[in-house]
Write a structure and sequence with these properties.
By secondary structure, this protein is α/β, with parallel strands linked by helices. The chain has two domains: about 1-70, no CATH class; about 80-335, P-loop containing nucleotide triphosphate hydrolases (Rossmann fold, 3-Layer(aba) Sandwich), CATH 3.40.50. About 40% of the residues lie in helices and about 25% in strands. The protein contains 14 helices and 15 strands. It has helices spanning about 1-5, 10-20, 25-30, 30-35, 50-70, 75-85, 95-100, 120-130, 155-165, 185-205, 215-220, 225-245, 270-275, 330-335, and strands at about 40, 50, 85-90, 105, 110-115, 140-145, 180-185, 205-215, 250-255, 255-260, 265-270, 280-295, 295-305, 315-320, 325. A nine-stranded mixed sheet has the order 7-6-8-9-5-12-13-14-15, sandwiched between helices. Helix 2 crosses helix 5 and helix 10 runs parallel beside helix 12. It is elongated and about 80 Å long.
């Protein structure tokens, strides 16, 4: 912004340069007090103190310069898209194409599905991928993983982390050392953990992913629906605020239950009270076809986007192997 300084009177330019305030953006964001405390040497006087009129002239010139600088909508959106709408890759090309790059770092992403369908396997892969550098689809951050149902599968995570570290030997990865695990079996202790303990972890460590596995297990047995709705709102509001403040993704697992109308389709638990709190809902199901991988017959899984504000209702098929979640071979996808 050399042209911006050149248009100013010399005494005003000397004030800006003495503070190393060289752009109109810096001029507008620098407090007036900082300018008023400035003293510059000139030819006519040994020391000249900056006056309120000098500050007004400088800030008016900066505001006018920015107002006259042409900007496009694209140039305004790109920084926000890069910083505020980052995504955590699934580590599977098919799932990344389906979701537009992975899980977004805003709002709550819900992953629902029947028992044993592979929800936790997908979360473990997300917990590893978020630790990768930006150029590999991660955020270079750690994970806060809260279990409410089963014991955390540390052995399975070790198996998947070894495979991922072998996939990126050029990176100095410590995947197991950046996963912070908490077990909470009761709703009161879960709320206390999220509201009081989790903020301390977010301040002390760089966390890019918060996982609750699962919300369905801990809320579905409530009989007081008004109290359940209040607690769910409190939990969701805290998680959404963390996503906005720390630019981290939030993923909550939900269970499914059978519909009462005799339909063969399953519906996510917790009803509209919970579905209105989430931003994106994805569902994992089994597909009636199999594929042979290393002499092992694996069932094909499908991830479907049920609703999302920025991606269409698409789906992608994948496999769960010993190394993790992988894309289905092209010849199988065509069947």
């Amino acid at each position: 912004m050399t042209n911006f300084l050149e248009q100013l009177p010399k005494r005003i330019r000397d004030i800006a340069e003495s503070l190393n305030v060289l752009t109109p953006e810096e001029v507008l964001t620098t407090p007036r007090v900082k300018f008023l405390d400035t003293r510059v040497t000139s030819v006519y006087t040994l020391v000249r103190k900056c006056t309120p009129d000098d500050v007004r002239v400088l800030k008016d010139a900066a505001a006018k310069w920015l107002a006259e600088t042409p900007l496009t909508a694209d140039s305004l959106f790109k920084p926000l898209a890069n910083v505020r709408w980052s995504r955590v890759s699934f580590g599977c090309p098919a799932l990344d194409r389906c979701t537009g790059g992975g899980v977004v770092t805003r709002g709550i992403t819900e992953i629902c599905g029947a028992a044993g369908v592979g929800k936790t396997q997908l979360l473990l892969q997300l917990a590893l991928c978020v630790q990768l550098p930006l150029q590999l689809g991660g955020l270079g951050k750690g994970v806060a993983y809260i279990c409410t149902e089963d014991v955390f599968p540390a052995r399975r995570l070790r198996e998947m982390s070894n495979a991922m570290e072998a996939r990126y030997p050029q990176e100095s990865l410590n995947l197991m050392g950046n996963v912070f695990v908490e077990h909470q079996r009761e709703i009161d202790t879960l709320i206390n953990c999220v509201v009081n303990h989790l903020p301390r972890l977010l301040r002390q460590h760089s966390i890019g992913l918060i996982v609750i596995d699962s919300v369905g297990a801990i809320f579905r047995l409530f009989t007081d629906y008004l109290e359940r709705a209040r607690l769910m709102r409190r939990l969701a509001n805290a998680l959404i605020s963390y996503a906005d403040k720390y630019n981290c993704a939030v993923v909550c697992v939900n269970q499914v239950s059978s519909k009462c109308n005799g339909s063969s389709d399953d519906a996510p638990c917790l009803g509209l009270q919970w579905s209105h709190l989430g931003r994106t809902r994805m569902c994992i199901t089994r597909v009636p076809k199999q594929h042979m991988v290393q002499d092992q017959l694996l069932t094909v899984r499908k991830l479907e986007i049920l609703y999302s504000p920025e991606t269409p209702n698409d789906f992608a098929e994948f496999l769960i192997t010993a190394q993790g979640v992988v894309e289905l071979p092209a010849k199988v996808r065509r069947l």
